[in-house]
Amino acid sequence: MPTTTPTTVLPTARGPLSQALLDVLAGNPTDNSPDLLALLADAADYLVTVDDVARDEDCQLSLFLLYSLHYGGVVDGDAAWEWDGRLLALRSLFESAFEAQLRASIPVPALPAPSAEDVASALFALTSADSGPSLSRYVARTANVAQLEEFLVQRSIYTLREADPHSWAIPRLTGRPKAALVEIQSDEYGGGRPERMHAAIFAQTMRSLGLDDTYGRYVDNVPAITLASLNMMSMFGLNRRLRGAIVGHLAAFEMTSSIPNRFYGNGFRRLGFGEETTWYFDEHVEADAVHEQIAGRDLAGNLAEDDPRLLPDIMFGAAACLVVDGWAGEHMLDAWTAGVTSLRSPL
Predict the structure, then answer these.
(1) Which of 105, 129, 150 is the last residue of a domain?
(2) Radius of gyration of the chain (CA)
(3) Which domain holds residue 98?
C-alpha cells in the first residue's frame, strides 16, 4: 500500500481556460461568480477554434480538473462544486467537442449481429488486428531506466486509480452485463484485499523506482494526450447514454492487456528490477487473460443481446480505446526514438 500521506496536488494551468477554472474552484460555489459565467462564454468561443481537442493542453487539463471533482484527490475545493450546474454545463461543452472529434476520427468496424458470440468474435478480431505502435516491445527490448520512469509517470494518471472510470458503469447496467462487470472489477480491486488492489500494486512499482505515488503528483509532467486517455474513460463512464462505449472500451482494454504486460515486465527484469517492481505487470498477464473472455462475451456480448441499440457504441468504445491509447503510445515512442523526453517537463 502507498506509504505517502494522501495530499492534494494542485496542477498548474496550461492556458486561460484552465487558469480561470482553477481560480473559480478556489472560490465559494455559493457565490454568483461572474468569473464562472465568463469562463462558460470563453470556453464556447475557444472550442470553435480548436482543431484537435485531444491534444489541446488547455482543453484536456480543464476537462481533467472537472472530472477530478467526482474522483477527488486533485482539486482541494469546496465539495459542493461537484454538482454545480454551471460546472456541469462547462464540462458538457468540453465533452461535446471531444466526443465529436473522436467520432469523426476513429474508424469503427462493421457491426456484428447482436449476439454474445458474434460481438465477442468481432471484438477479438478488432483487437487482434490492432497495428498501433508497440510501446510494450520497445520497453521490453530497448528502454533505459529513465524511460521506464517516464513510462510509469505517464501511466500513473490512470493506473493509480485503476478500474475507477469503468466502475461508473456498474449502476448503469442490469442483469448479466452488470454481474460480469462486477466480477471483473472485484479482481481489479483486489478481491477485498486492499494490498492486492491493482492501483496499490502499481503504486508499489512506482516507489521501487523512487517515484512519488501520490495521485496527481505528475499531472504537470504529462502531455494532453495522456490526460485525454483518462478523460475519454471518464466521459464514457459518467454519461449513462455512453454506457455502451465504456463497456466496449473495457472489453478492448482487457483484450489488449495480457501480452503487453508480459513485455513490460520483461523490460523491467532486463534492467535488473525484481518482483517488487514487476508484480503489477505479472499480475495482469494472468488476470487479463481471464478478464478478456468475461469482458468480450459476458459483458459486451450480453449487453448487445439485451439492448441491441447499444451495439454501435460498444464497437465505438472498443475502437476508441485502441486509437487513443495508440496516440499516447505513439507520443512516447516518437519522443524516445528521437532521444528526447516524452514528458512536458523532465523528472
Answers:
(1) 105
(2) 20
(3) 16-105
Q: Which of 55, 75, 105 is the last residue of a domain?
A: 105
Instruction: Please name the residues in contact with 62: beta carbons below 8 A apart, sequence gap of 6 or more.
Output: 17, 18, 21, 43, 90, 94
Same domain, 97 and 147: no
Cβ within 8 Å of residue 246, ≥6 positions away: 165, 166, 168, 169, 233, 236, 237, 317
DSSP code for 333: H
Closest CA to 71 of 152, 8, 151: 8
Whose CA is closest to 135, among 147, 119, 118? 147
The single residue listed with the C-alpha cell 478500474 is: 163
**CA-to-CA distance for 152 and 206, rounded, in angstroms?**
7
pLDDT digits (tens, 9 = 90+) for 148-182: 999 999 999 999 999 999 999 999 999 999 999 99
Q: Where are the alpha helices (DSSP H) in the chain?
A: 16-25, 34-49, 57-71, 85-105, 116-128, 135-141, 145-159, 164-167, 175-188, 198-208, 224-238, 243-255, 258-270, 275-293, 302-306, 311-337
Q: Do 192 and 327 lie in a common domain?
A: yes
Query: Are residues 177 and 248 both part of a single domain?
Result: yes
Handedness of CA 163, 168, 169, 175 (dihedral sign): positive
pTM recorded for the entire structure: 0.94
Q: Is residue 143 part of a domain?
A: yes
CA distance 179 to 231: 25
What pLDDT is stored for residue 30 in this prediction? 81
